[in-house]
Design goal:
Blueprint lengths: L1 H32 L3 H4 L14 H4 L18 H32 L5 H11 L8 H10 L6 H26 L2 H9 L4 H12 L1 H17 L2 H6 L8 H6 L2 E2 L2 E2 L1 H21 L1 H13 L1
Antiparallel strand pairs: 1-2
Helix pairs in contact: 1-13, 4-7, 4-10, 5-7, 7-10, 7-14, 8-9, 10-14
Amino acid sequence: MARGYARPILIYVAAFAVLVWVAFPLLWLLKSSFSPEIEMLSIPPDLIPRHPTPDYYLGLFHDVPGINPGTGQQLLIPRALLTSVVIATCVMAVNIAVGAPAAYAIARYRFPLRHWVLNSLLSSRMVPSLILLVPFYLLFRAVGLIDSLVAVVIAHISVSLPFTVWILRGHFMTVPIEIEKAARVDGCGRLQTFRYVALPLAAPGLVVAGLFAFMLSWNEFPLALILSVSPDSLPVQPALAGLSSYQGVSYGFLFAGSILAALPPLLVALVLQRHLTQGILEGSVK
């Protein structure tokens, strides 16, 4: 009997240890964002804030008496959050709109150099984004798109679209070909079969690919830093980096801004959790 209980107990203990390992940095960040700066730097550190305060969150929107505003860079965080939401949403939408037809064509049709195209898409993801900084900058400067949201969106799409096509190809291959053939017999054309049969059946895969594109765009730093100059086009990652300068680091604002920056992708993942889990499981079959 004891041996029968040993395995489940070990599994739960291991799962709890992994949960603590993963969640501890986020919890520590949350705790620090509500701590006065003197408590952040105390040794030994406090596990729970002794005098919790929301001043650093409020200080992201307006000056709060009693805390050092520094250079005022923290006031850019709310606008940068909205900018990142717009950029990541556009990147996600374009990835689905362009990647789904491309992935379906690769999964269903036989054409010359098909495998070469597929392998080239995946190989392009092996190129670090740092290598693309200079070409992108020169290209967008030549066409007058530097310091615009359009430049950042195009750059992020070029980085994320190959992986989107690769992910969706695997999901379209899980759709039974017999269902599509039955739709063709009933009079559906190729586009109708794709729209009314393949897309609904691959919906979980669309969620996975869309969320991946959203997260990739949200966390992209080098391209956003180089292509954005003014506060109007500055995404949240470069804005957070701006809180650290030669004058020092605004730890309170940095922690509070990091918590706010983690909320949008977390909320998106929670809303799409059911479809996300289903999409990951279906994609793993192939």
